[in-house]
Amino acid sequence: MERAKTIALLAGLGCFLLAAVLTIYLPVAHLAKIEYKSLDQIAPEPSFDFIDLSKRYPAQFQKYYGEPTKEAFHEALKLGRDQYIAEACWHCHSQFVRPVSNEDRRFGKVSWADEYRNEMFLPHLFGTRRVGPDLIRESGKHGNDWHVAHFYDPRLVTPQSVMPRYTWFFDGEEPNKVGIAMITYMQWLGSWTTPEVMAREAKAAAAAGGKKDG
């Protein structure tokens, strides 16, 4: 009996260690070898939409971010990403266009690895279901005013929406620090890598490599 208990205990510990290796060590060891782009590389200057928010809501913007500098832009992006996670937006909105169910017809090209090779996608927010649309390439699909109205009351712009209101993103009817950050993050998603951008980067890298060889 004691021997059976010992074997069961060792087997349990072995399974635990195996699971730890497979789910923790191997992924971390693999990811550590992958080069990830920094925020400075993918967002070297404030976006048009961030600057536009500073003009539409000057008092609020000045209060929370000052001027639309690169540093303020990065602060808003990180806060928006963190708030997106905290509000569990990824439960209803995936950030991954899957190669099934004609998703590419609704949301564009199936997602590729390079879209996620930057510090803003750690952790990855693929999502497990899609109540609302996929957001991996939300940038440019709607204007800032649309996002303001959508966060304040989704039914104002999408009558059939089941999304809750996020009135705590606002001071009165104008977006506060979190509201500006969320809109900035939404408008940024997908702006850093498109097939055209990747083609230009690949061409530039090839040209640089050719010069070095020469």
Task: Describe what this molecule looks like in 3D.
This protein is mainly alpha-helical and 214 residues long. It has two domains: 1-33; 37-213, Cytochrome Bc1 Complex, Chain D, domain 2, CATH 1.10.760. Helices cover 53% and strands 2% of the residues. A two-stranded antiparallel sheet has the order 1-2. The longest helix has 30 residues, at 2-31. The protein starts with a helix and ends with a helix.
Q: How large is the radius of gyration?
A: 22 Å
Placed side by side, the strands forming the largest sheet appear as 1-2
Write the H/E string, N to C: HHHHHHHEEHH
Q: What is the 3D form?
A: globular
Q: What structural class do helix, strand and pairing data support? A: mainly alpha
Determine the number of helices (DSSP H or I, runs of at least 4 residues): 9
CATH C-level of the largest domain: Mainly Alpha
Ranges where pLDDT stays below 50 over 5 or more residues in a row are none
How many strand elements? 2
What share of residues is helical?
A: 40-55%
CATH architecture title of the largest domain: Orthogonal Bundle
Q: How far is it from the N-terminal to the C-terminal residue, by CA?
A: 75 Å
Largest sheet: 2 strands, antiparallel
* CATH homology-level superfamily of the largest domain: Cytochrome c-like domain
User: How many domains comprise the coordinates?
Assistant: 2
Search tags:
2 strands, mainly alpha, single chain, 2 domains, Cytochrome Bc1 Complex, Chain D, domain 2, two-stranded antiparallel sheet, 214 residues
